Amino acid sequence: MDKIGCGVIGAGTWGEAHARIFSSEPYSELIAVCDLVEEKARGLAQKYGAKRWYTDMEKLLRDTDIQAVGITTPDFAHREPFVAACQAGKDILVEKPLATNEEDLKVMKDAFQKSHSRVMVDFHTRWNPPIVVTKESIDKGEIGELISMYYRLNDIIYVPTQMLSWAEKSSILWFLGSHTIDTLRFLSNSEVTRVYSVSRSKVLVQKGINVPDIYQSILEFENGVIATIENNWIIPNTNPHWNDIKINVLGSKGMINMDLTNNQAIERYLEDKSDHPDILIMPLVHGKAGGFAHESIRDFVNRLHTKQEFIAGFEDGYRVSMVVFSLLSSAEEKMPQKVNYD
Q: 141: Cβ–Cβ under 8 A, 6 or more apart, which residues?
């Protein structure tokens, strides 16, 4: 059986997730890893059995054994590898957000439209079982006409202060808000038309990180649905999980509630800590990668093999970025903003 040769650009946390799946799926083979830091590229390549590693992205993209690439560079650094991969004719799985400034987004759209590359944006919440069950219930009309949604998706303060060295070059709206927006688009099967957002900057600024702590926003959808979203990354590190996730979906005939942080499925109490181990996002089950964050990467490989349409394509990434631009503008101007997708 011919396998899809895969490369990974960026050897961080999500680069490892891509490498793990590319190296273990029956339809794919991990050929090479690239990172600016040779030690990281070599370490990840050797861990997952890649044939080669590079510090030069162009060399990876010239590798004729590679047909598809995973782009896992930081939020603000997707343009260069994405455009180069399009020009090299590679199929692409790019981590969200697609781009964090309008110039990059325009250049990436142009490169995509001129290429024959197939592109998936890794909005992995679309593979989260509770979200998928909710989507099916909405589509079947079980809760009637969709009226409103609430989505709270926050991170502990460890993320911007210790995990990410580049937090100031992004924001919680890009880092988690992009997931929030795409999930609501997915559930409502509609596009955002107008937004209003407010932000506050205090906790992180006092720690020397010049980026807002929190955004609270209202989204209006084309089909009349109203959504309220909260995104912050200053939750105390003592939170049982690195994410804080609450969702409410209200219809004319019913309602769905989700608490995906403090679920009672498993609680662990040790001498020095208590927590809720991950059972949804990226657990390893008998050594095999499980969870919806791995499942989306697996689905990318399978849909390349079967030539099926991606569940989250380039246009989804483009539209989410345009909504975030409007939210940022709204928070800055303290006024509602219409979303212009042109």
A: none
Which pTM was predicted? 0.95
Hey, what amino acid is at 93? L
User: Which residues, in sequence order, are CB contacts of 147 under 8 Å at separation 6+?
Assistant: 225, 226, 250, 251, 252
CA–CA gap between residue 39 and residue 265 (Å, rounded)? 39
Q: What is the DSSP string of 76-123?
A: T--HHHHHHHHHTT-EEEEESPS-SSHHHHHHHHHHHHHS---EEEE-
- Taking phi over 0 as left and psi of -120 to 50 as alpha, with beta for the rest, 260 belongs to alpha
What is the spatial distance between Cα 187 and Cα 183, in angstroms, rounded to a whole number?
Answer: 6
Residue ranges with strand state E in the chain = 4-9, 28-34, 52-54, 68-71, 91-95, 119-122, 146-155, 192-200, 214-221, 226-232, 243-251, 255-259, 268-269, 274-275, 284-285, 288-289, 337-338
DSSP 137: H
Contact 327, 319 (CB under 8 A): no
Q: How far apart are CA 51 and CA 125, in angstroms?
A: 31
For the chain, count helices (H), then strands (E).
12, 17
What pLDDT tens digit does each residue of the chain (342 aa) get? 689 999 999 999 999 999 999 999 999 999 999 999 999 999 999 999 999 999 999 999 999 999 999 999 999 999 999 999 999 999 999 999 999 999 999 999 999 999 999 999 999 999 999 999 999 999 999 999 999 999 999 999 999 999 999 999 999 999 999 999 999 999 999 999 999 999 999 999 999 999 999 999 999 999 999 999 999 999 999 888 889 999 999 999 999 999 988 777 888 999 988 888 888 899 999 989 999 999 999 999 999 999 999 999 999 999 999 999 999 999 999 999 999 998
